[in-house]
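Lecture 7, part 2: worked example. A protein chain together with heme C.
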Amino acid sequence: MNKMKLVLVLFALASGLAACDKGDSSNTSSNASAESSGKMIDFVTTQDSKPLKIDPALFDTPAAKEFMTTGKNPYIGNAEAIAKGKKVFQLYSCTQCHGPDAKGQVGPGLTGPDYKYPKDATNKGMFETVWHGTNGGMGAKGIGLMDPNDPKNGITPDELLKIIAWVRSMSNVTGNE
Ligand code: HEC
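Predicted complex, written out as structure tokens:
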């Protein structure tokens, strides 16, 4: 009798585990399902590490959505995105302060590996720094923050990821580890 029960329990356990297995593998094999779950990672400001709220609707491309949920920059190493990022870097005058090769001018170099804000060695950290600005002389560049009088002015998340991909292409830091 006891033996019979044990067999039944084992059987139930085994089929339960098999079901779990299936669920897991279908989740992990698809990035799309992680994206569509839409859960935003916790962004923090570089000034004081307080929570940084960004409207999820601004993450409006597949790459931006992936970044929003993983903190990884899908444009690293993508030649097309890097070329676009270089243009946006010039467009928003980053060049004036950080130099045409991001090696520094009035502002510090951005190629690392050592940063004033150590978190800038990660793509999430650099995103937060540029989006919301620093304590020591750089204003926020994120859309809606750059110019309080013009909510449409500023860099979109997708543009910022391309800028970062370009900056990383000038350096040995990839930032996605
Ligand atoms: C008006 C000059 C100016 C402009 C324009 C500017 N920056 Fe900066 N940036 C600075 C200064 C100054 C610092 C150092 C701030 C500090 O020490 O807090 C800085 C810091 C940074 C850092 C942090 C570096 C570190 O060592 O941690 C990053 C990243 C950065 N800037 C990226 C950008 C990008 C990208 C743009 C264009 C969208 C941009 N900056 C535009 C002046 C500027």
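The first helix runs from residue 2 to 28. The pocket of heme C is lined by residues 92-94, 96-98, 106-108, 110, 115-117, 120, 126, 129-130, 134-138, 141, 155, 163 (CB under 6 Å). Keep this in mind for problem set question 3.
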